[in-house]
Amino acid sequence: MVIKSEIHFYGDGDCELIAENLLFRVHKNILVLSSAFFNGMFSAAQPSRDELITISQTGRTVARIELRDAAKDIEQLLSFLYPNTFFEISWEDVENLLRLADKYIVETLTSACVAFLKRSYQDEPLRALKLAETYSIATVYKESSKLVLDRFEHFFYDSSNLDQLSKQTQKKLKVSRQQYVEGLNKIFCVTVDRRFPPLATDHLRTKFEECVKDICAFPFQTPSYSWMKLHQVDCNRHFECREELRRLKPFINEKIVAIFGCKYEPLAWARSSFDANDPCYPFIELRDDY
């Protein structure tokens, strides 16, 4: 038995969609303007007689299209397309909405989902990374990877968390993590051997060595913590220390990048105003160069 939708059944509609046993009467223009899928469907073919139904009250005939998605999914899609209905995207439905946006080629819905992920990726970085990979959202992929790499052991202590990530993305994450661990070993060795940094002031060197010992102690600190500690080494008590550090900071920054084998950047779309002392993170990108 077919049931009329309580939300999307418009008396002046000129097209009907049916999903499972739920009937929607909607407006063809809204579908055509919002969805390249429906635009192509209505442009490419005329409905057959079997696909037309007559509205008894007016005698008008309208096309009826049967869709294979769940009724609640089509209802949610229509609620996004129609201006008289509104809902907020959440983690509970963003994955399904991205699937619908991709299937029915609704660019505005894709944009809304991407905007949600940009706002919310810090809450669920692994889920954001998985969705960004599936739907080729390069910006979200890069930013969410920063937080995944920063808490690598937390996310991958349970191997099931790797599910839904491609082998390529898994490899990228593991390579980046290995670069970080090897970088800690390198910086510890060159600092202990006093080959780096080239500091003439013993007091400043001692502070730098203490910092390196802190970040290299097991269990290892996060990459963002290590980056922040290395860039906050300072000495305000001695004029010669301040001058030497000011002169050498650009060199130290360049050397640290070389030691860890990748660039570090702050988080994009930060929830607070940018601060020069904000931590920086390693990241991976959505491209085929691994």
UniProtKB/TrEMBL annotation:
Q: What InterPro entries does the database record attribute to this sequence?
A: BTB/POZ_dom, SKP1/BTB/POZ_sf
The leader peptide range reads none
Alphabetical list of Gene3D superfamilies matching this protein: Potassium Channel Kv1.1, Chain A
Q: Which PROSITE patterns match?
A: BTB
Looking at the record, the residues that make up the BTB domain are 13-82
Protein known as:
BTB domain-containing protein
Q: What organism does the record attribute this protein to? A: Glomus cerebriforme
